[in-house]
Design goal:
Largest sheet: 8 strands, mixed
Strand order of the largest sheet: 1-4-5-6-7-8-9-10
Structural class: alpha/beta
Order of helices and strands: EEEHEHEHHEHHEHEHHEEH
Shape: globular
Radius of gyration: 19 Å
CATH architecture: Alpha-Beta Barrel
CATH superfamily: Aldolase class I
Number of domains: 1
Number of strands: 10
Helix content: 25-40%
Length: about 300
């Protein structure tokens, strides 16, 4: 029986898939808005333990066909270790179709083009990347550990290896004073990189994380002021309005933190999505109740 080192996080879309814990924590773990993995130090799990979990999982669920590699950044593992894990999964699960993982831009860039291509050949076909913002100032203020240029390069590297990217951006991350810079930079970055999937989250801070976020944000000058619901809807409207990606993007704002759930393909469904946002801004469409929003 597999036993996880808790807390365990995974994308909502991976909820019905096999979760295999190959690392503990996050290799960066400095993003000021993120409260995940604060109780853990990043380290790789022993390969023997990973293989034992794979064999245990196969006894319980031999038909598993999608696997998510946890924790926060499995791509922090070296190429040789990832290759061993992927080979073991392929040998053990005859119906294996897809392996996915969280990935930071830094660790995508640390893998060579040839290494990423080999990992893709072993069914690592989807990575989840937190872009958060395309504004260089916002990325500095939230200690993202990446720049728009490095994010663009990392996503291009994944695409060249035929690895799909599911990217997230955070509405409200610039507050009331820097929301235009936040959205304008994000539009520019998404239009260039065109990830396969794009989702929005709404900024939310756990109580223990709030002071750290404020201190990091304000060290470059100016106080952080929270956006209200109208403000975040305007950000969403500005984002969708500006998106003209170089390739089609599957867009969602259905994460539990969002006040308005949207789904469509960009740029094809832009008019409909903007109409739905306008309806919410005018009060015609009811927003999600606050008590059911969460991370």
């Amino acid at each position: 029986m597999m036993l996880y080192d808790m807390p365990l996080y995974r994308p909502p879309s991976e909820g019905s898939n096999l979760i295999l814990q190959v690392t503990y924590g996050c290799s960066f773990n400095e993003c000021s808005f993120c409260s995940m993995y604060k109780s853990k130090s990043y380290r790789a799990r022993p390969m023997a333990d990973i293989f034992a979990d794979i064999e245990d999982a196969a006894r319980d669920w031999p038909q598993a066909h999608r696997v998510f590699l946890a924790d926060g950044d499995a791509l922090g593992l070296g190429f040789a270790e990832l290759k061993q894990i992927l080979l073991k999964l392929a040998e053990t699960f005859p119906d294996l179709q897809r392996v996915s993982a969280y990935a930071t831009p830094v660790n995508l860039l640390r893998k060579s083009a040839q290494e990423l291509e080999q990992l893709r050949g072993l069914r690592l076909s989807l990575v989840y990347v937190g872009i958060e913002s395309g504004s260089p100032e916002i990325l500095k203020r939230v200690t993202k550990g990446a720049s728009p240029a490095s994010i663009e390069k990392a996503l291009a590297k994944a695409r060249a290896a035929d690895i799909k990217v599911s990217a997230t951006v955070i509405l409200g991350l610039g507050g009331r004073t820097l929301w235009r810079e936040h959205i304008e930079g994000t539009v520019e970055l998404i239009n260039k990189t065109a990830p396969t999937y794009l989702s929005t989250l709404l900024l939310g801070l756990e109580e223990t994380q709030g002071p750290r976020f404020m201190q990091r944000f304000e060290r470059l000058g100016g106080a952080f002021e929270w956006q209200d619901e109208t403000g975040t809807l305007r950000e969403l409207n500005q984002l969708v309005s500006g998106l003209e990606p170089v390739r089609p993007v599957i867009f969602r704002s259905n994460h539990a933190s969002n006040s308005l759930a949207l789904a469509g393909n960009l740029p094809k469904d832009k008019s409909r999505l903007l109409s739905e946002i306008a309806s919410a801004l005018s009060g015609e469409t009811k927003l999600r109740s606050r008590y059911i929003r969460a991370f």
